[in-house]
From TrEMBL:
The lineage of its organism: Bacteria, Pseudomonadati, Bacteroidota, Flavobacteriia, Flavobacteriales. This is DNA 3'-5' helicase II. It comes from the Bacteria. The keyword ATP-binding applies. It comes from Pricia antarctica. Residues 213-343 form the Helicase/UvrB N-terminal domain.
Length: 705
């Protein structure tokens, strides 16, 4: 099926002519296969970034550079402009060997000028066509034909700067054609280009708030880095901030923004104008919150001090943001653009702080995946987050209007996880094959948004439904590199010693037989409190076999996640936003049951979806047996999700059924740890369930008894 993707970049100085050009191509979009870029690309030259007004790349017509003229001004030499456009783009493409034949560019570049306000009708020239109306434009497009459509994908990859990422990790060392290393190389080469939603997310610029929603592996972090590099190249005077919750993302963002900036402006980005900055911050490491306290002369709270503001673990940052927001009546402008990754981890107060320190227009881009929330927060609507103006109208309302840049973008394709891994992660995360569901979308249509289709039944309240992913949302090449039994394994052990031996032996095999690099392997512990101490035994056994390892944020800088010379051990919070070819999830029994089950299941979902090839879910004891039983049901259903969609009333009670405790219940447990009599009374009366009790308290009770 043919369809032209139209990506509306920033071309403020030529609004009317570019609008007319878009309208023309909208009318023929079902006749072409490819992309029309407006205000893109920006090409790095020795003089800085050079912007092309519009670029058409299609399988049918090839590559056409379009110079756009606004108004009736004829003072510019359009012949000279077309020559410069040609020279700049051909020079960029000639740098890539796969686009050349001997010394010449393997593809033909055509150039034209589109000037709908000009009156001359005799400017159409074979070498320098100047088109002044859509009849001429239609005739011109009809007259051209691509002679080298085989290069379409390769050219697209260069234009999107994706080649920079693919060059970043060489696998020239691979010797065996059938090893995991060889399969991984082919897999990485297969992810060549951005899809239409990703392209829109990078280039389409909103003079206000833009929201990007996407499941794990949909490319959000790379898209945001590309967006920052693109907008920095176009607007070098803008002060831009990139912020996030996971500190190890800082190194990723800096690396990608640097790579992409060389593509756009041929030089290192101006780091005086770009802050890659943590959300919280400290006096020794700046953050959005720390800086607003300093700039507005209010008290700053670090994590330890923030504990005094709330009894709820995990809500410390929410509380300090709420306090700061209430104390500042007049915010000072700090940035022209703020980009927020991992927005699902932040309260609406933090997002409002970011909104308030922006100049007008309020350029704020926030990206999130609710299923990766490790604190059971849910994203509020933009109207609720940003509030109303003095007249009672919402400050932010996201609407995708025809022929306008998209304000709300959904990335429904997953380019990291195979269908088998992603569906299993969703099934476990929601508790699809438990006796009782753990959690569920309030709006059933969200299943479609994250790439599932109804295979059987009805996606309606009270109805049984079977949902499956398709090749459109989970590309087949992500699964085809390995057998299903190798893609995903659940391993149950009698004790931790057996678990350690298995993982150490498997990692040794990965390195010495499978041809995986050390930084292809990540070991994730779901319980963040125990990671530092628990992984010591694993690391010692690996060291005894000559394999080095590191603990993310402990043995290296908190801002660095990967070290190419070590296996990375990590807790779940630092794992978020990162990926590896082989992921081992240890002590997975932690996620099977107990207090805050939705949070634990989200942790398991997040851990599994760090993998771009293989997953090993490991653990020991009865709870791990229970987790593997759920997995067996998923496999039996051929990686589909079959369940009864809960009614509104059932959804209201799901937290009670699955023991996601309210604040009142949590406080009662904390208080009763000091009062055994009240605790026994509440257990007897059913006010607290035994599943709510922390393991260490149960151990204490057993010891006392």
């Amino acid at each position: 099926m043919k369809e032209l993707n139209i990506v509306r970049g920033d071309l403020k100085n030529k609004p009317e002519s570019s609008k007319q050009l878009i309208n023309f191509f909208e009318s023929i979009k079902n006749e072409l296969t490819g992309t029309l870029y407006i205000g893109y690309p920006i090409i790095g030259t020795s003089q800085g970034g050079f912007q092309i007004d519009a670029l058409l790349l299609t399988k049918e017509k090839g590559l056409v550079i379009i110079n756009i003229e606004e108004g009736a001004d004829r003072s510019k030499d359009f012949v000279e402009i077309q020559d410069e456009n040609y020279t700049k783009l051909s020079s960029k493409l000639l740098q890539h060997k796969n686009l050349t034949e001997k010394r010449n560019l393997a593809i033909e570049i055509k150039t034209m000028t589109y000037a709908p306000a000009w009156s001359d009708s005799n400017l159409v020239d074979e070498d320098y066509p100047c088109i002044i109306n859509n009849v001429q434009l239609s005739n011109y497009i009809d007259s051209i034909e691509s002679k080298n459509s085989d290069y379409f994908e390769k050219v697209l990859s260069v234009l999107q700067s994706i080649t920079s990422i693919r060059k970043n990790k060489s696998r020239d060392y691979v010797k065996s054609e059938t090893s995991k290393g060889a399969r991984l190389k082919k897999l990485e080469d297969s992810i060549a280009n951005l899809d239409r939603q990703q392209s829109s997310a990078v280039i389409e610029t909103v003079e206000g708030v833009q929201r990007i929603r996407g499941l794990a592996g949909s490319g959000k972090t790379i898209i945001l880095a590309l967006k920052v590099a693109y907008l920095h190249a176009k607007n070098p005077d803008w002060k831009i901030a990139v912020t996030f919750n996971t500190r190890s993302l800082k190194d990723q963002f800096r690396k990608y923004i640097t790579l992409f900036s060389y593509e756009h402006i041929n030089e290192e980005p101006n780091w005086e104008k770009i802050d890659i900055i943590h959300a919280w911050g400290t006096p020794s490491s700046e953050g959005i919150y720390f800086n607003i306290c300093k700039d507005h002369n209010i008290e700053y709270f670090d994590f330890r001090a923030a504990k005094s503001l709330t009894r709820i673990y995990g809500r410390e940052f929410d509380k300090v943001c709420e306090k700061a927001l209430n104390e500042i009546s007049d915010f000072k402008k700090k940035y022209d653009l703020i980009v927020i990754d991992e927005a699902q981890d932040f309260s609406k107060d933090f997002l409002k702080i970011c909104y308030n320190i922006l100049g007008v227009p309020k350029r704020l881009v926030y990206a999130y995946d609710e299923l990766q929330s490790l604190n059971t927060k849910t994203m509020a609507s933009p109207e609720e987050i940003f509030g109303d103006d003095e007249n009672g109208f919402p400050l932010v309302k996201l609407v995708n209007e025809t022929n306008q840049p998209k304000q709300d973008i959904i990335l429904y394709k997953c380019y990291r996880n195979s269908l088998e891994i992603l569906t299993t992660a969703h099934a476990l995360g929601f508790g699809i094959y438990r006796e009782n569901l753990v959690q569920m979308f309030d709006n059933s249509a969200l299943w479609n948004d994250i790439g599932y289709k109804v295979a059987e039944g009805k996606l309606e309240e009270g109805e049984q439904v079977t949902l499956r992913r398709t090749n459109d949302t989970s590309p087949a090449f992500l699964s085809e590199h390995s057998d299903t039994e190798d893609l995903l394994k659940f391993e149950v052990f009698k004790n931790n010693d057996q678990q350690i031996k298995y993982i150490v032996d498997e990692i040794y095999k990965n390195v010495h037989e499978d041809e995986l690099r050390l930084d292809d392997i990540m070991v994730i512990n779901p319980d963040p409190i125990t990671t530092k101490n628990l992984v010591g035994a694993f690391r010692q056994k690996l060291y005894d076999k000559g394999i080095n390892s590191s603990v993310a944020g402990v043995t290296d800088s908190p801002d660095i996640f990967y070290n190419k010379d070590t296996i990375t051990f990590t807790g779940i919070y630092r794992a978020k936003g990162n990926e590896a070819a082989m992921v081992y999830v240890i002590n997975s029994q932690y996620c099977f049951s107990g207090v805050e089950l939705a949070k634990k299941r989200n942790i398991l979902f997040t851990a599994m979806t760090r993998s771009k090839a293989w997953v090993r879910v490991c653990g020991y004891g009865d709870n791990m047996i229970g987790l593997k039983e759920e997995f067996k049901k998923i496999k039996k259903n051929k990686f589909g999700l079959t369940f009864n969609y809960p009614t509104a009333e059932e959804r209201e009670h799901m937290n009670i059924v699955n023991r996601d405790m309210s604040t009142q219940e949590k406080n009662r447990v904390q208080k009763n740890q000091q009062n055994l009599g009240d605790l026994l009374k509440d257990l007897n009366e059913g006010k607290i369930q035994k599943e709510d009790l922390p393991k260490e308290l149960i151990d204490q009770l057993r010891s006392l008894l």
